[in-house]
Design goal:
Layout: E1 2-6, E2 9-14, E3 23-27, H1 33-42, E4 49-54, H2 58-61, H3 81-97, E5 107-112, H4 114-125, E6 131-135, H5 144-150, E7 159-165, H6 179-192, E8 196-202, H7 210-223
Parallel strand pairs: 3-4, 3-5, 5-6, 6-7, 7-8
Antiparallel strand pairs: 1-2, 2-4
Helix pairs in contact: 1-7
């Protein structure tokens, strides 16, 4: 594993032993890249390099626009996703791939919770990624479903993975109650265009087994 800083973010790179293997970019709330990489390899994933980014200002850099807080007493969302996406594509991505022994076959993006929302948003703003996994994605975010329906990806994705816990919609927050409906409608929208998609409903709530769920999503992308 190699670790370095770019633009105030910590980037942990878990290198594949296979030259030219795909690269998956994972935005993390904490620093769970090592757990995700280990879980994916334990599950028998095809070879890949994982670039995990930590040190994010979560409610700002993963949010596409300003929005009220999801829960009372928590911070509001301050849309800074565009600024972070520029850092990711213009500085982090070249820094990661400059260390690789060969050009990667393809590049994907994955994320959990708000980072799952960001993964889909990134597809609409850049052609850098051709596959995405939105794992327990915050697809309840106000106006986000409508945004996706109105903005085509900058490049047609090879495939898209969605997952949720089956208890994620059972919450006091009115915003979050429709998350399964919103996720299924977004998945159906992309599936109707002929894009290869998957939707997996896992047992549990939002905070159950995030590393294993993320690894499962990455594994699905790698096996397509």
């Amino acid at each position: 594993m190699r670790r370095f800083s770019v633009g105030g973010k910590t980037v942990s790179v878990f290198l594949s032993e296979e030259p030219g293997a795909p690269v998956l970019y994972l935005n993390t709330f904490g620093d769970e890249g090592e757990r995700v990489f280990a879980a994916a390899r334990a599950d028998g994933c095809p070879p890949f390099t994982l670039a995990a980014v930590s040190g994010l200002a979560w409610e700002r850099e993963m949010a596409p626009w300003d929005s009220p807080p999801a829960f009372r007493g928590t911070a509001p969302f301050a849309g800074g996703a565009d600024d972070y996406l520029r850092l990711l594509t213009q500085e982090i991505l070249p820094a990661v791939e400059g260390q690789l022994p060969a050009r990667c076959r393809w590049r994907g993006i994955a994320g959990y919770s708000l980072a799952g929302l960001f993964a889909l948003y990134a597809l609409c703003k850049t052609d850098a990624f051709c596959r995405a996994a939105s794992v327990s994605g915050s697809l309840w975010f106000p106006g986000f479903k409508e945004y996706l329906f109105a903005h085509a990806p900058k490049r047609r994705p090879d495939c898209l993975y969605f997952s949720l816990g089956d208890r994620e919609g059972k919450t006091r927050s009115p915003l979050l109650r429709g998350v399964q409906r919103d996720t299924e409608e977004i998945r159906a929208f992309y599936q109707a265009t002929g894009i290869d998609t998957a939707f997996v409903l896992n047992p549990g709530g939002h905070h159950d087994q995030p590393a294993a769920r993320t690894a499962a999503g990455i594994g699905w992308l790698l096996r397509r």
